[in-house]
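Reopening: UDP-glucose 6-dehydrogenase still failing for me.
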Amino acid sequence: MHISVIGCGYLGAVHATCMAELGHDVVGIDVDAGKVDLLNSGKAPFHEPGFDELLERQVNGGRLRFSTDYADARGAQVHFIAVGTPQSEEGYAADMTYVDAAVADLIPHLLEHPDGPTLVVGKSTVPVGTAARLAAQVGGSPAHLVWNPEFLREGFAVQDTLTPDRIIYGLPGDPDAAEASSAVLDAVYASMLAAGIPRLTADYATAELVKVAANSFLATKISFINAMAELCEATGADVTVLAEAIGHDDRIGPKFLRAGVGFGGGCLPKDIRAFMARAGELGVDQALTFLREVDTINTRRRTAAVELAHRLLGGTFSGKRVAVLGAAFKPDSDDMRNSPALDIANAIAGQGARVIITDPAAGPKLAKSRPDMEVAADAFEAARDADLVLLLTEWRQFRDLDPAELREVVASPQIIDGRNVLDPAAWRAAGWTYHGVGRP
Ligand SMILES: NC(=O)c1ccc[n+]([C@@H]2O[C@H](COP(=O)([O-])OP(=O)(O)OC[C@H]3O[C@@H](n4cnc5c(N)ncnc54)[C@H](O)[C@@H]3O)[C@@H](O)[C@H]2O)c1
Ligand SMILES: O=c1ccn([C@@H]2O[C@H](COP(=O)(O)OP(=O)(O)O[C@H]3O[C@H](CO)[C@@H](O)[C@H](O)[C@H]3O)[C@@H](O)[C@H]2O)c(=O)[nH]1
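Support: Ran it again with your exact input. Result attached.
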């Protein structure tokens, strides 16, 4: 099948490449000419495990190409919308200008297709009600609109795209249009469906809500365990044991209960905020006031880390050298959007410390985008003569650090383990003052 993917960022580039992997003929459209050139040369514009090989193979194999020209999407039967929906400058609501521009620019290129209806398929995360609004806009063209939200995690993007936990279609209200649209998407995902991936159908609003509900639940789980970490800190209890113990209950489950400096990235923080903003517009803001608390607990983990660092440095940052291990919002990604690590590093530097930061994947990007920051090649270079080390993104390179070796290079052996990934006993035995999150 001939497919277009509009917007080739973390989501769109991986989706386009995986669609080619499924055997489709794919064109990716993006307004960023530099990104398009890179992708056309088979090079990933971001760090994502397993993506480079797939991209190179599909571009060289001729089933995948990228363009800045919407006219190249003409003739495709399915057009996926994967442009960004960041938090708006003014408040919590999602900035819909990219989605609106993409749909408006795509409409003139939507053509009748001999094999069934042409589809515009939304994958971006949007405020509930967007699909109905866009369907009215697309209505004058030969295409139907479907909402098919994406649940991939960065760091596992390829695997999550090809073997998702579920697929959901938000379908048009007209039964004939719904049935025909559903059949076309089934053909797109045929091999995945044949492998038994659950596929649900719903109306537009439900499909849109499934996405933000899932992210809200995940964010709530993280803030819940971080709230428990605060209780553990006040009582001398250990949140890692608490999480393991409650996680044995099937109804709770062990995942997403890692206490630390909290959630960041281009999704959870802005999605819960956009959800609250949308609930306000719908007159049901009270339903989501708990998300405000989820957000507050999350932000508090960042300020708590800065305050702890301040205390450990004797109440002043000035003249101190601080090593920060991690800049990306999570390991196996170079994404620094709303990164707790970067946020904490900025706050400490802003209060007068000399901060040296390192990140295996985000480091080079950071050095380019933030010439004001000192970026080191690795943990040892960052930690040289440091008065304090903070581990804020749990890369394997940092988890595997030898405490005795690292101790050799620092000025003062004290570490904040903002992700609870180090063995406190081993670090203490090597002479370090160790501080985790919610651990005695
Ligand atoms: N990153 C993820 O893990 C992930 C997972 C699921 C859902 N999402 C959602 O997917 C959407 C995209 O997220 P992302 O992380 O890929 O963002 P991103 O910023 O990495 O990518 C967006 C891309 O869209 C391009 N773009 C902007 N306007 C355009 C236009 N008018 N026409 C064509 N291209 C345009 C940008 O140049 C950019 O390359 C968001 O709604 C996000 O919430 C992201
Ligand atoms: O127990 C945990 C788990 C995660 N995190 C943090 O939470 C953030 C988000 O992690 P994760 O959800 O793994 O990363 P994303 O790639 O942002 O993926 C989320 O956001 C995507 C975009 O909407 C969705 O598609 C995914 O399903 C959803 O997991 C990161 O900062 C993690 O460090 C914790 O602090 N504790």
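The chain has three domains: 2-197, 213-295, 302-435. If you still see a failure, please send the error message rather than a screenshot.
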